[in-house]
Design a protein that fits this description.
Elements lengths: L1 E3 L2 E2 L10 E9 L7 E10 L4 E8 L11 H4 L3 H4 L5 H12 L3 E4 L2 H15 L6 E5 H8 L7 H7 L10 H16 L5 E2 L29 H6 L10 H10 L6 H13 L4 H21 L5 H13 L18 E5 L3 H12 L3 E2 L9 E4 L8 H8 L3 E4 L3 H4 L13 H29 L4 H22 L5
Parallel strand pairs: 1-7, 3-6, 6-7, 9-10, 9-11, 11-12
Antiparallel strand pairs: 2-8, 3-4, 4-5
Length: 461
């Protein structure tokens, strides 16, 4: 149903004049099964939103909704919602004439293909773009979860439980990637003619605004995953982001892993790797609060790897916490650098921010610059930030070159000789030396003075 388009950096076909439809789904598991929520946000290449679509999807009478700890959807909410077949017409109408976008495009495409195959309905292949793979070419990050990439690229807010919140983030990501990061298509996208199906009423759900992310959610953004990613590890990070992990949630995670074909030892090793990474991140800050230590021990115990979460509170001042202001590719790269260095990256200015970095796109009268100084934060420009934050060593001060030093000494010696000759000439002239001889030696003295000055004062030339 969706085909991933090959992308390039600068030099390919730009997205000017195109529209994108960002898709996000909530599902019954990690492997293709049923979609229980679907959302789409259509945007122009300039970032203006053309429309939104969202609905719960009933996978069938009595079919479990899957991991409520991930998407927050109960079986009761699905009763009375439209089926995927009843939603497909609205989805295709919404995508018509646009390039489809999803963060993890293979995951979304696999589920949609599975649903379409179950219906026995032929659907033309839609051109698609994956923001996860595109982001890999734009900025180096510890991991490429949607929340991490959105934070690095300056997307406000945080994707929540609903598919619509995720689709909104994906829409902003694709605009940033094709805009300021210069991603282009290897070939012009071919937009197929789509069939029309009957449409019916949709059933969107309400979702409260996600709260401010706590330490656990921020630390999860800095956990390094492998080059190929890890779907279960990403899921685990999402689950623990709320700083609470109940036994029922752990059992649900184990069921998801088993359904995806993971043996128990692989699940435990993933838990151990995740908690160990969280502990290392906490220790790297140099400051471990009692709350952080308690949260990590609770999560480690719940996941069955209590030893990996053995962390003692450690006082030591204020951990480095950086807020980067700016809407340029350079600002995005600096945010990504902060995360890659294991440093806390703030979303907004609070008293916990230790450094505020502004790139040239930030106006000089930006109120947060003044407010940051009042709060005691160090205000930096983007160029000086990598050195000031300790990511790069300061530029080496080059010692004077030997040739320059020898010229300086030689010049001063020559000036001394010139002065001595002039003194001897004056004394000799008073002693009756012929004028011709005096002028002859005086010329040598003046030449020595001028030559010595030229060697000893190179900066004046």
């Amino acid at each position: 149903m969706i085909e991933s388009l090959p992308l390039l950096g600068a030099g390919g076909h730009p997205a000017h004049g195109l529209e994108f439809t960002a898709l996000e789904i909530r599902t019954t598991g990690l492997r293709p099964g049923h979609v229980v929520e679907l959302a789409a946000v259509r945007v122009h290449a300039d970032g203006s939103v053309a429309g939104e679509l969202a609905t719960l999807v009933d996978p069938g009478p009595g079919v479990p909704p899957g991991p409520a700890l991930v998407h927050g959807i109960t079986r009761g909410e699905l009763d009375g919602a439209p089926s995927f077949g009843a939603v497909l017409g609205s989805l295709l109408d919404f995508c018509r004439g646009s390039v489809v976008v999803a963060h993890d495009l293979p995951f979304v495409a696999a589920f949609l293909n599975h649903e379409a195959a179950r219906l026995g309905t032929g659907v033309p292949v839609l051109p698609g773009v994956g923001t996860l793979e595109a982001a890999r070419t734009a900025v180096p990050l510890p991991n490429y979860r949607l929340a991490t990439v959105a934070h690095a690229l300056g997307v406000p807010g945080r994707p929540g439980l609903s598919a619509l919140s995720g689709a909104r983030a994906v829409a902003q990501l694709v605009v940033a990637l094709f805009g300021r990061h210069g991603v282009t298509f290897a070939a012009p996208p071919a937009l197929p003619a789509l069939p029309r199906f009957a449409t019916g009423p949709l059933r969107p759900r309400e979702e409260p605004e996600p709260g401010e992310p706590g330490w656990m959610a921020e630390a999860a953004e800095r956990v390094v995953t492998g080059a190929g990613g890890d779907a279960y590890l990403d899921l685990l990070a999402e689950v623990v982001a709320d700083q609470h992990l109940a036994p029922g949630e752990v059992a649900a995670l184990a069921a998801l892993a088993a359904e995806a074909g993971w043996p128990a030892d692989r699940v435990r090793s993933t838990h151990l790797r995740f908690v160990t990474a969280l502990r290392e991140i906490a220790e790297r800050d140099g400051v471990v609060t009692a709350a952080e230590a308690r949260e990590l021990r609770q999560v480690a115990t719940a996941l069955g790897v209590a030893d990996a979460g053995d962390l003692r509170p450690a006082a030591g001042g204020k951990p480095t916490r950086v807020l980067v202001l700016g809407t340029t590719a350079a600002a995005d790269r600096l945010r990504a650098r902060v995360l890659a260095e294991g440093v806390q990256l703030a979303k907004k200015l609070t008293a916990s921010v230790t450094h505020l970095v502004a790139d040239p796109s930030v106006p000089a009268n930006e109120p947060r610059l003044t407010r940051a100084a009042e709060l005691g934060a160090v205000v930096l420009d983007a160029g000086a930030a990598p050195v000031a934050l300790g990511f790069e060593p300061p530029p080496a001060r080059h010692a004077a070159q030997p040739a320059t030093t020898s010229k300086l000494v030689g010049g001063r010696v020559l000036m001394g000789i010139g002065l001595l000759l002039m003194f001897i000439v004056v004394v000799a002239m008073f002693g009756g030396t012929p004028v011709g001889a005096g002028i002859f030696f005086a010329v040598f003295g003046v030449g020595a003075l001028l030559g010595g000055w030229w060697l000893a004062e190179p900066a004046s030339r």
